[in-house]
Amino acid sequence: MSNLAIDFHTHPLLVREMIARHPELADAARKTFYIGNNFQPLETFHLELDAAGLDKAVVVAVDATTALGKSVYTNDQIAELCAMSDRLIGFASVDPHQPDAASKLDVAIKQLKLRGLKLDPAMQQFRPADRAAYPVYEKAQELGIPVLFHAGMSWAAGSRLEYGQPLLFEPVAVDFPKLNIVLAHLAWPWVTEAVALALKYPNVHLDTSALYFDNPRDFLRYAMTHVVPLSVFECSLRRQILFGSNYPRVEIKNMANAVRALGFSADFLKLIFGGNAVRLLGGVA
Amino acid sequence: MIVKLQKIEVQSRKDMEMIDITDQIERVVAESGLKNGVVLVMTTHTSSGLLVTEGIECLERDVLAHLERLAPKDPPEGTYHYWHNRYLDYDGRLGFNAGDHLKSILGGVNCFFPVENGTLVRGSRQRAYFVEYDGPLARTVFIQVLGE
Predict the structure, then answer these.
(1) Hey, of A215, A218, A246, which one would you mutate to test binding to chain B, going by the most B CBs within 10 A of its CB?
(2) CB contact under 8 A, A34 and B15
(3) How far apart are CA A32 and CA B53, in angstroms?
(4) pLDDT at residue A1 greater than cutoff 70
């Protein structure tokens, strides 16, 4: 088993070097994600990983061209960022409303060397099972890459809760059984539905990047011990839970500490923090 | 009359950390040409601080540990909660770091030293620290010299 520890869900919204090269990214951070934190050198991102005891992080783009008229990081920009750091793993995004979305994904994976696909139905405003998105799923399945879906509530401007309901993803899980799907944020407030989906479909995974009230410790304890018993994750979903922080909405260190404090076994924590992510990334991180 | 304001960036590398910035303050004073007056130092961040104490590693650890006891990041379970633990729409995130803001208040966010004959007036053991309560982050500190 790999000993790498990975944060499977971050948004590189605050990286100062990228803001300097692409000033429109500042707007994306402030007006789309409403992130008010000061922009930081890339070094701070690395130090965040260090403080959390992690080695690498997935950084994602979101292509909301049709819904919002912009991308929060383009695939090229994610590739540019990843070229600056061997600790970052880039995920592409495409706009499922666009007819050439599948071919853009092909380019992002084969030419830009990105490693997965990020889709945010709430922000991109599409139903996950919309047939227009199927060519994208077919391409992702063919490429053997995971799809990280935003699921559950989103704070982002213009996003719609209804597109984040877990059961909307069921047709995708059924129709693309070899496609590894990750539902982010435990799909809160529909944690039970998301867990049911993962229990039924082995290609459905959940990431831990959920924080909607209280603090990371108390929120995750509520979601992962009270809403759904801890034993369900530990015993039944061992290979389907991935650590994600949703940085910079939450510091990586805080989410990592909260997950470690839940009471999972040491070997399950290894899977959550690395083993499961490495498998979804094709065995190499 | 000399009035100069200098901004420096301090990169913290840990969640909580004391970073000695005495030499940087002295450098700003020297470069300003100030002979007699005062130097004022402040952090612009509400989850960080500025304080003066003896410059030894064991005391640095005691300061941080004591402030964490007084204002813990997460309150002991079943005791009290922080009102700050809620979504802050202007910040795009939850404000779950009340304990770090409280540490900043307890420890203070500024310090000053007299300057005499171009030299900082301070006790032989006194050092000026930037104190990180919620790092790692690149932080901004202002140093202003006033005098002649």
Answers:
(1) A215
(2) no
(3) 43
(4) no
pLDDT at A83: 98
Residue A253 touches partner B, C-beta closer than 8 Å = yes
Question: Among A250, A208, A184, A269, which residue's Cα sits nearest to residue A37?
Answer: A250
Residue for token pair 């008010």: A36
The CATH classification number of B2-147 equals 2.60.120.460
Instruction: Report the distance separating Cα A83 and Cα A93, nearest Å.
Output: 18
Domains located in chain A, CATH noted: 6-280 (3.20.20.140)
- CB distance A35–B13 less than 8 Å? no
Give the pLDDT band of residue A229 (cuts 50, 70, 90). very high
Residues A26-30: contacts with CB under 8 Å, at least 24 apart? A28/A70, A28/A71, A28/A72, A28/A73
Q: Closest approach of chain A CAs to the CA of B18, in angstroms?
A: 15
Mark which residues 85-114 of A lie under 8 Å from B by CB: none
The overall longest dimension of chain A from CA atoms, in Å, is 47
Domain ranges (residues) in chain B: 2-147
| CB atoms B92 and A253 under 8 Å | no
